[in-house]
Amino acid sequence: MGVRSQGLQAWIERLNQSELPALAGVVQDLQRLTREQHASVQQLADVLLRDAALTSKVLRIGNSSYYNPSQEAIKTITRAIVMIGFDNVRLISLSVSLIDGLLDRAPRHQLQELLARSFHAAVQARNVSGYVMPRHEEEVFIAALLFNVGELAFWGCGGEQADELAAMLAQPGVKAEEAVQQVLGTSFRQLTLGLTKSWNLGELISLAHSAASSSDAGVRSVSLGVRISEAALEGWGSSRMSGLISEYAAFTGVTEEDALRLILASADEAVEVASTFGADRLCRLIPSTDPEQIQLQQSQRQVSLLQPNLLKMQQALQDLGLMATRGGDVGLILQTLLDGLHHGAGLERVMVAVLADRQTCFRVRGAIGEGTQKWTEEFLLPAEQPEQPHIFSYALRQRQSLWMGVPASYNLEDLVTQPIRQWLGKGMFFIAPLMAGTHEIGVLYADCRISGRALKHEQFVAFQRFTQLVGRCLAALSRRS
């Protein structure tokens, strides 16, 4: 059993003493040089020359087309500093130390994903700061690169505790912050702030953590870069990204079209920077950008963002009301239900899953929305599994309409099993029992996962209303038959 660390102080000591001393040393020396007004070329060269591997990497990167377009060969560190600049050499050294210090120890995917996001954030932040506070780009780059240094260090050096946390975070419905607190005895944010202080990383990182709304241009550049790198993982057309594009435009004084163009260019640059640094395995983790594809996606997205249509909804409710009293066949009832919820209430994917094969499993009887054809053809979920109860059976047994993904239903998250996630993805959804009188028919399911928008209260009210009416229609049908 490896050493267990609990609490902020224990982790800081462990990372400083046994786990990352070489990295911490280089980082501290490089940071010290920034604060010394007249740090000389020679002082920087001396820090790097202590580490032969670091020196050769810095020279290789310094000779890359990204940093040295003139392609005039650079053979010494002092020449590199003269050719590509003191700040660039410092920045390269710090980045290389971070990548090698962590990735060579533990190339686990959490670390790779976070490092890729850190590089992306750093390039985005540096390019924003070029508009609002030129000459501070390098400081902003480093602050954004190290914004999650506590979490990076943990995934790189956490050993068995990192395995333990990874296993906990893989559980459905787990709250990430609580899991981190339980395993580490502190939060990633506290660990970052602790290392920032212990390694003397300058106050920009601490400021960026404490005040996203700060008026300081450096803090805002870092914060914007970090948030763009996170939102990009949801897609360039996500609603979160749209908000950041507006914020970027307002902050830098460019138009929103230009802001998007600059953000995409920075993402491409981040891929180039990562590959220049020899971190090719990080490149594929930075969201890709193909401008034509994005334009297309965006225009399609605007068209495809389904909007509620009250007239259609009222009409469908009325039609179902009539069928409840006068009768209608099952096909028509279900079609009216699906249309009403999709086109009327604006729910992007809706399905009716019924108990089939002598009530042993759920199969899809009808579905509407992008990508639901596959459900109709292939969806299959065993009905009762004592060893793995799930939300479909639960909703039907409890006769309860549920809004999953909101705090009120967090205690039921375990019922959203792996097979259900594989079919339906992650995120909020509505589910309700379909009954014909006391006879169990199946469940009604709806979500807005195509765009990833949050579900709304009015939609839940409509969903419940449709469920009740269809129940009445089905009860009337079963009485007739």
From TrEMBL:
Domain HDOD: 20-215
Record Gene3D superfamilies: 3.30.450.40, Hypothetical protein af1432
GO terms of molecular function: kinase activity
UniProt cross-references to Pfam families, sorted A to Z: HDOD
InterPro entries assigned: GAF-like_dom_sf (IPR029016), HDOD (IPR013976), RNase_Y/CdgJ (IPR052340)
SUPFAM superfamilies xref list: GAF domain-like, HD-domain/PDEase-like
Annotated keywords: Kinase, Transferase
Transcription keyword on record: no
Name this polypeptide is given: Histidine kinase
The species this protein was found in: Stutzerimonas degradans
